[in-house]
Amino acid sequence: MSVDTTYAPSMLVEEFTGAAPGGLDAAYARLVGALWSPGTAEDRTLWDGGTLTERAPSAIPELIDALDGLDEARAGRLLILLGLIAEAGQTEAVRAGLDRYLALAEHATPALGQALAYLLAHFPHDRGRVLGVAGRLGLDSGDRSRLDRCLTLMDERRTGLGRVWPAPEIWRLTDAERAFDEAWIGALTQEQAEVNWRNDSRTVWGYMGLKAYWSVRRGPVVAVPGPQAPPQEDATGDDPRLGLFGRHLSALVCPSCRGPLDIGGAAVRCPACAVAYPASRGILDLTQAVRDDADEATAGLLKSLAEMPSMGLYYEALLRPEYLRVAGGNWGGAVTLADEDAYIARSVRPVDGPVLDLGAGAGRWTAVVAAAVGADRLLALDLGLPMLNVLRRRVPDVPAVRASALDIPLADASMGAVVCWNALQAFPDEAATAIAEVGRVLRPGGTFTLMTFVWDEDPVCRHFQAAHYFPSRPAGTLLFERAELERWLADAGMVVVESSGPESFVFVTARRVS
User: Fold this and answer.
1) What is the distance, to the nearest Å, from the Cα of residue 438 to the centroid of all Cα atoms in its chain?
2) For the segment 71-104, what is each residue's pLDDT rounded down to a tens digit?
3) Whole-prediction pTM
4) Secondary structure class of 259 (helix, strand, coil)
5) Residue 449's beta-bridge partner residues?
6) Is 188 helix (H, G, I), strand (E, B) or coil?
7) CA 321 to chain CA centroid, nearest Å
């Protein structure tokens, strides 16, 4: 956005505070653009708090003074801007207004309380004073745990490192999990630990900032329930259920040589490579090729499945709904489970031939696809064994393959449809490769049904989206642009027949051309 550099900070602040309701967003965008800008996806070094303009330092006192007497829509936006400026390196200058921020907490509305919590989370050296007013901010328990974490300095044991998203309070660790944390955290250098701690802080700031920004602009956050847990099953038994793969054997290929596979004994074999791939209870692991002892490999797979009964459930119940808020802007509940189910069923039901659920995860949407086309036509694929372990409970009649979406172990033009639901962003740097693989395995006329997320057009939202660091993405969140998704689909031989989605969601159906 172009901003007139002749404007003094005070003039920009006055324009914003005096703006009519219909012009408030535009005036705020001009004010923000005059003082701060986010980084770019091409240069991750700029994401750390964004970049301040030359006028930002002199504007800080103006912003603080302007808080008095404003309504929540204006005061909340200014508090968020002050938080952004603090993140970008002017923490001490912003901290000068602490007394005024704490005074605002005395009569804070829920939206203003969210904005105050985001700003106050940048002042760990004032922990006592901030927590003294936290009870007046109208925060839920998750918000309180986020605020508490940001006001905590890293101790010698680096307590809680890596366990902050979506809220520190949800991480109730077992003894084994605590031992695991102690091992990897203890192996970090001090510099590595500090980088990870900083990234954890940015992740929490990003969540709090997004929630506050929504609240001051759009109203209260709407809770959208996550999927219900699938039924539990007996973890004993070692039936590989190889019969499930028989109907897809003509399509499955060896990941190493791309040759055909055979079923033999308790494993699936590649005659050309003279290797076997272990299978257990309807899960075929094509990441483990064994030349001699297939039984031992199968026993290892069975043991791994028995040791991870709940990780996929944890993702579905707690992490996915929050991720849809962060990546998709689903704070207002614009997308529900019923919306997702209906789009999938509508897109895949007319398709003929086998169907691949790519990045199937824990199987919630695999079940939707199975209901639409029949379990006998469906094959699920995911690289995460914990997810597949839950999927096999939810859809026991759907065969599951452990393999990479970047090298799909299927023959060319073997699938009538592919569904990739809420998974493409899990490998953003290789998304074009995954889409090219989809184009390869689709038959002419076959369809690709996709749901993922794009960057928000608002630079403030975009900054908060990018601030999230997950264990699988140490470089931070990377989402997509609509134009690049369309280009990758075209390069893979597909044409878009439908594209929609509220907020930052993208729902796409594409068809493979002949």
Assistant:
1) 22
2) 999 999 999 999 999 999 999 999 999 999 999 9
3) 0.90
4) coil
5) 419, 509
6) coil
7) 9
